[in-house]
Amino acid sequence: MDAPSFDINDDHRELRDWLHTFAADVIRPAAAEYDESEKFPWDVLEEAAKAGIYSFDFFATQSFDPSGLGLPVTMEELFWGDAGIGLSIVGSALAAAGVSSAGTDEQIGEWIPPMFGTPGDLAVAAFCSSEPDAGSDVGSMRTRARYDEATDEWVINGTKTWATNGGIATIHVVTASVEPELKTRGQASFVIPPGTKGLSQGQKFAKHGIRASHTAEVVLDQVRIPGRCLLGGKEKLDARLAKARERAAAAAASEGLPAAGKEHERGANASMATFERTRPAVGAQAIGIARAAYEVALDYAKTREQFGKPIIENQAIAFALADMKTSIDASRLLVWRAAWMAAQGRRFESAEGSMSKLFAGETATKVTGQAMQILGGNGFTRDYPVERWARDAKIYTIFEGTSEIQRLVIARTISGAPIR
Ligand SMILES: Cc1cc2nc3c(=O)[nH]c(=O)nc-3n(C[C@H](O)[C@H](O)[C@H](O)COP(=O)(O)OP(=O)(O)OC[C@H]3O[C@@H](n4cnc5c(N)ncnc54)[C@H](O)[C@@H]3O)c2cc1C
């Protein structure tokens, strides 16, 4: 029997080195300009597509790597280059994950490849779950999907917000409530095909960080889509709704509470399933930013002299760097463990996916702040990239579930208690 190993294999090493070269040569040189202009980095995506990085095949290969490590390795390197551009490159993969976690094989084959387009004719995709009044509280979603039996169409109305690639996407994956009283269990995911009438971009947000990434509202006004755009299909949805109704009725009867109030939300709906799959990969993005900042801070501390010696010879600086490196490595171990567990089909008994995203996101904000401190005045200027990385890192305690929501998921999972 082979001895257990913490080593990555040659394929992952090759993948990492290849992506690192792309990140260093193509992404990083473009980062400051896109941060300033807040424009979508189409030319970088074009380069990524030509290199074979921005493609359905590439993300499918990494997502289904049997070790689970392909995706975290990819994320860390791309986001080491730049997080705003990195998110522009991988944003479509979040929408693709929405389709692959809820869709049938036929739907996966039909909808995922056009999310990426082809070199020279690129496309991006968006996953739209959040709403103005439904951020962490996914159950209060107001977007409604109504089935029109006469035409076998779904009619969707509502406003989505904070959608990465929202409005510029060729394909939008949208979550909507089919039976509001069932809360998250009454929701479903839909593909909005290219050029569908009634979908438009609302406000585009001016952001604190990851400014190359496009974030906008998506307005859905009497959007009509064919029945086959319901991910997973109607039969499966009907069966799921029937089961949810039964459970809600049984829970209400047993405790005398309104049925909807008894629904336990964790893992109950399509968008939650997507988030569970993507959390370790999002943690890996945060590690990329943290590692970038740590490396610059380490170099700076070795060369910057004050009081006649390099500042790293002060314990205060050296210990900060020791803590930074330790937290980054600990984050990576948590992320790789969760990604490996997911690939093996193991259950997250202690919400390991949430743990990894929580720790990596908190690490990125802390480490980038420490790096700014080590660079002193230079850390506060745009002549050095560290202040940009500190701005970029902050999103990792907010999106894909805030740090508080990750703690809530972990606390509920380890205790079994209905913690609010
Ligand atoms: C740049 C960016 C990109 C995004 N991309 C996407 C995307 O592509 N698709 C998408 O669907 N969404 C996206 N989001 C939305 C993101 O996932 C939400 O912003 C996030 O889930 C938080 O929701 P909220 O902003 O409404 O905050 P709220 O839910 O209003 O939370 C506000 C504060 O209250 C805290 N809080 C809320 N409930 C509790 C509780 N029960 N216990 C303790 N604290 C609590 C939160 O942790 C937070 O600190 C994106 C957001 C941003 C900023």
- The helix count comes to 14
Q: Summarize the amount of helix as a percent range.
A: 40-55%
How would you describe the shape? globular
Largest sheet: 4 strands, antiparallel
Name the structural class. alpha+beta
Rg result: 22 Å
Q: Please mark out the parts with pLDDT under 50 across 5 or more consecutive residues, or reply none.
A: 257-269
Cofactors and ligands: flavin-adenine dinucleotide
Report strand order across the widest sheet. 4-5-9-8
SS elements, strand count: 11
Helix-strand string: HHHHHHHEEEEEEEEEHHEEHHHHH
Structure characterization notes:
The chain is of the alpha+beta class and 420 residues long. It has helices at residues 10-37, 42-51, 56-63, 70-81, 83-102, 105-111, 113-116, 234-255, 270-303, 315-343, 352-374, 376-379, 386-393, 403-415, and strands at residues 117-118, 121-122, 125-128, 144-148, 153-164, 171-177, 187-192, 199-204, 215-226, 305-306, 309-310. The strands form four sheets. Strands 4-5-9-8 form a four-stranded antiparallel sheet, with helices on one face. The radius of gyration is 22 Å and the shape is globular. Residues 257-269 have low confidence and may be disordered. Bound molecules: flavin-adenine dinucleotide. Residues 127-130, 135-136, 162-164, 207, 210, 215, 395, 398-402, 404-405, 408 line the site of flavin-adenine dinucleotide (FAD).
Question: Which keywords apply here?
Answer:
single chain, alpha+beta, three-stranded mixed β-sheet, 14% strand, binds flavin-adenine dinucleotide
